[in-house]
Design a protein that fits this description.
Elements: E1 9-12, H1 19-31, E2 36-39, H2 46-62, E3 67-70, H3 73-79, E4 83-86, H4 93-100, E5 105-110, H5 113-119, E6 126-129, H6 145-155, E7 160-163, H7 171-176, E8 181-184, H8 186-189, H9 195-209
Parallel strand pairs: 1-2, 1-8, 2-3, 3-4, 4-5, 5-6, 6-7, 7-8
Helix pairs in contact: 1-2, 1-9, 2-3
Length: 210
């Protein structure tokens, strides 16, 4: 897949959802407007991750949407994913870039302004910033708020994707703060029966405000 980045509606998978249900939910999200999919699994074996990543990548490419693997450069390489998203404690960005090459996407999580500034000198394609709001998805996430997001957008030379507690009631404020996109989990996947509807509404708000 050509390296292109529309980060506006970035869905991160939830491993608590049984994979057969997740696959169906992801397809509904793809049909209704997500622009990036990140596969995140912290508790699964490498074999399980590989098998699931193969299926998700195939589905994403059917809809011409980039497929990103969270943390695991080895899994990304093994399935020829479109890129990886790294945390501050994961493999160094420079090392990941050396392994993946320049045609792959690399995103980096940042939790404060200092990390945003540091990311400016790293070979990344975008940064994630947050948690903007309180979130149940990551129990240890510290809330930074909208003002910090505005500052991150101002200082970052890369596109900024806001993450953490973003939902239908606050997504407009996040886009108005200058974010290039929003990364969500529960805003789309919380109600597995309404994934298409939730995605469509989020997409409409983002498009209208953006």
């Amino acid at each position: 897949m050509e390296k292109r980045l529309d980060l506006s509606l970035y869905l991160i998978t939830d491993e608590k959802i049984p994979f057969n249900q997740l696959l169906k939910a992801v397809e509904q999200a793809l049909k209704n407007g997500i622009t990036v999919l990140q596969y995140r699994a912290k508790e699964k074996t490498s074999k399980e991750m590989y098998q699931e990543a193969v299926a998700l990548k195939k589905l994403c490419h059917r809809y011409n949407v980039p497929f990103i693997v969270n943390d695991r450069v080895d899994i990304a390489l093994s399935v020829d994913a479109d890129g990886v998203h790294l945390g501050q404690d994961d493999l160094d960005v420079e090392v990941a870039r050396g392994l993946l090459g320049w045609d792959k996407v690399i995103g980096l999580s940042t939790k404060n302004i200092q990390q945003v500034i540091q990311a400016n000198s790293l070979p990344v394609d975008y940064i994630g910033f947050g948690s903007v709001f309180p979130t149940l998805t990551k129990a240890d996430a510290k809330t930074v708020g909208l003002e910090a997001l505005k500052e991150a957008v101002k200082l970052s030379i890369q596109p900024v994707v806001a993450i953490g507690g973003i939902n239908l009631s606050n997504v407009k404020d996040v886009i108005k703060a200058g974010s290039s996109g929003v990364a969500v989990v529960s805003a789309i996947l919380k109600d597995i029966e309404k994934v298409g509807e939730s995605t469509k509404i989020l997409k409409r708000i983002i498009t209208e405000v953006g």
